[in-house]
Amino acid sequence: MSRYLEAKNMYAEYGIDTEKALETLKNVNISVHCWQGDDVIGFDSRESLSGGIQTTGNYPGKANTPEELMADYDKAFSLIPGKKKLNLHASYAIFADGEAVGRDKIEPKHFKRWVAFAKERGMGIDFNPTFFAHPMVKDGLTLSSPDEQVRKYWINHGIACLKIAEYFATETGIPCVMNIWIPDGYKDIPADRLSPRARFKASLDEILDTPYDKSKVYVTLESKVFGIGLESYTVGSAEFCLSYSDYKGITPLMDNGHYHPTEVVSDKISSLLLFNEKIALHVTRAVRWDSDHVVILDDETKEIAKEIVRNDALERVFIATDYFDASINRISAWVTGVRSVQKALLFALLQPDAKMKKLQDESNFTDIMYLSEEMKTMPFGDVWNEFLDREGVAQNYLSEVRKYESEVLSKR
Ligand code: RNT
Ligand code: ZN
């Protein structure tokens, strides 16, 4: 008997249907962030990274041009099973030779090559206005700036991005998730916490009061607790972003690197699901700070996946990856991280959820502990390998990555 069939029988003894799990996983769309490929640099201003986020490492072979980034994205996609979506930042606009357009004036045409790329692969596109690494970020501030010229510039950027997001949805036929995250904050204790938040609110209102097709574009708002050099205060805190999302009827986004170290996103998902039709996630791995390490199959990633699966929320949660490691092969980083999210989802799909919920209501925590520990040593890997086989994707991605490294990346 094949390893998969044996695993299938073993899971069946717990009432778990591996076929159903594989079928479900096949249809989960993961939004794969483009910025792992070039250390979040982009093509427009090519400024060094700012906004309190940082890549560390100098591994050779980073993508320097749209062609290189697309080729690398493709290589990673070829090694990632399941459904994928592109996730672009506005800084990845592609301009014609000699064309210089400010972020406040970008247009759909600057993304037409990305649309062609997505369409050829039958993928949708998610989008992010880029409120960092740009000369118009003044004193670290964008939409909350007291300088009206700065604030207006970034409002116009937000409005320009809404049009581009709508264009993506229209062209691909797949709704676009447009995520707003601003880096604004202060290194030291502020004298006024209210006014920057009031200005951020007013700026968001101006952007989102611009008519856009809500059936095509889901606007999400991402909160954060601190950034590098912005340790004391961030304008877009958790309370601000949750309240604003509720007030404006947009979707809250939680990045699991954006909370105090002992807070976990897995515990927040259920609350948000009760009060929001949709929620959005940036899946990352924070090591001691919001370090954006590559996602691995760790306990919190599994716990996040369990919360999505056992609350029957796969259709309600937009799942995107968000990490950037410049110290290792970037293609491998992409593949490892996205596969880890998918592995966590499969692991979650193979849990005896109904039984465990019942045990909880009976206050039988002895059996819950026994069962959940047993599940950890079930032949999960054999079901995962079956998924890869059915998707026609090699288990060993490293040899492919190394081949691409010697043939392509090392020549850059
Ligand atoms: C920063 C946020 C944000 C960015 C990307 C590049 O802390 O997580 O989502 O990582 O937009
Ligand atoms: Zn994020």
In words, what does this structure look like?
The chain has 412 residues and is α/β, with parallel strands linked by helices. It has a single domain, classed as TIM Barrel (Alpha-Beta Barrel). It is 42% helix and 11% strand. The chain has 14 helices and ten strands. The strands form two sheets. Strands 3-2-1-10-9-8-6-4 form an eight-stranded parallel β-sheet, covered by helices on one side. It has a two-stranded antiparallel ribbon with strand order 5-7. Strand 8, helix 8 and strand 9 form a beta-alpha-beta unit. Helix 1 crosses helix 13 and helix 9 packs across helix 10. Bound molecules: L-rhamnitol and zinc ion. The site of zinc ion (ZN) has 4 residues, from loops.
The geometry reads as: globular
Q: Strand-residue fraction?
A: 5-15%
Indicate the percent of residues in helices: 40-55%
Spatial order of strands in the largest sheet: 3-2-1-10-9-8-6-4
Q: Please provide the ordered H/E string of secondary-structure elements.
A: HHEHEHEHEEHEEHEHEHEHHHHH
Low-confidence runs: none
Radius of gyration: 22 Å
CATH architectural grouping:
Alpha-Beta Barrel
Number of strands: 10
Indicate the CATH class.
Alpha Beta
Count of all domains: 1
CATH topology: TIM Barrel
Report the structural category.
Answer: alpha/beta
Summary tags:
single chain; 412 residues; alpha/beta; TIM Barrel; 8-stranded parallel beta sheet; two-stranded antiparallel ribbon; 14 helices; 11% strand; globular; binds L-rhamnitol; binds zinc ion
